[in-house]
Structure formats: structure tokens, C-alpha cells
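# nightly structure sweep
# worker-07 picked up a monomer target from the shared queue
# config: single-sequence mode, recycle default, output format = C-alpha cells
# input follows
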Amino acid sequence: MFEGGIKLKIGILGGTFDPPHLGHLIMANEVLCSLELDEIWFMPNQDPPHKEKARNVSNENRLAMLNLAIAGHPNFKIETIEFERAGRSYTYDSMILLKEKYPTAKFYFIIGGDMVEYLPKWHRIEELVDIVQFVGVNRPSYRVQTPYAIQSVEIPSISISSSLIRKRMKDGKTIRYLVPDSVRKYMEENQLYES
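# output follows
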């Protein structure tokens, strides 16, 4: 992947992916194409610092759904570095490890408008902005404004969230066209998020 000293441009999309949905995939694909990146790495987190509630399903289930969601896209990969560490999943710590592992890569960390507004509260943000290029994408009800240097990418406005999907599953409502069909089938077969 990194042979011959070629400097690849890698987008990192972190999240709980509990479950992954079409909004995640659209965001990743739009940034991939807009910034002409080589790959997007989906990085599921272990214990996100900005969320108090525990995950709703196991790491194994989240990973299985993510694999199904990105199947067929040649430029989408999964990076499990945060599964390999105990404790809070701080982006700074993960990116230091990735920079050591892939010194020739240039990393673009993709965040939605909600996280752009939250950036001043990120762990070691002043150092983090020196090692990654943040990419902010528009999200309904949020402005992509911050004192930090971020690249902005406009994407189609999609108001889908993992919490919406979990609620619909719990209430027995349809999630068709909100998640890839393979993910929907996996959720149904494994009775995930049902009441």
C-alpha cells in the first residue's frame, strides 16, 4: 500500500458506527472525490470521549456491519487501531500511532458540522491540528465554523443518524434505504437494537 515512498492521501472517518448508515458512506465518498484522496479509512472507536453512553452492540457486530457497509468500494477500508487500545479513544493518540505506522501518508480527518463546533474541546487539539488536516462537512442545523484551519467539503444534506436507526429498529419501523441492504439484513438476522 505504501511501497516506493509514494505519499498517499488518506481520509479518516471515525465514529461509533452503531450502526453504520448511508450518511456515513455518502460523507466518505464525497470527501474522497472532492479532495481526490486515495482511500478512506473508517475508524470505529472503542470508547469515544464525547459520548457518555456505552455502545449498543458489541465491537464484533459493529465491525461486521461496517465490513458489509463498505463492501464493493475499492477505496474504503477499515482501521481498527482504536479497538486495540483500552480506555478513551482520543483522536490525538490514534493519529500519533498511525503517523508512526505510515510515515509517508498524509491524513485528512473527516468530521461533521457538529464536531467542527466541538473542536475547541478536543483532547490536545493544538497539537492534533499540526499532524492532521481536518475536513469539515456540512450537517443539518450546524455551521462549519471554527478558529482552526479546516478544509470544508459540501455534501448533499442527509439527515440520517445512528440514533434514528436504533429508535426505528426498537419501534419496529422500517430502516430500508437508510442503511445498506446487507447491513439491514444483518441487523434483522441478529436482532440488533430491537426492544
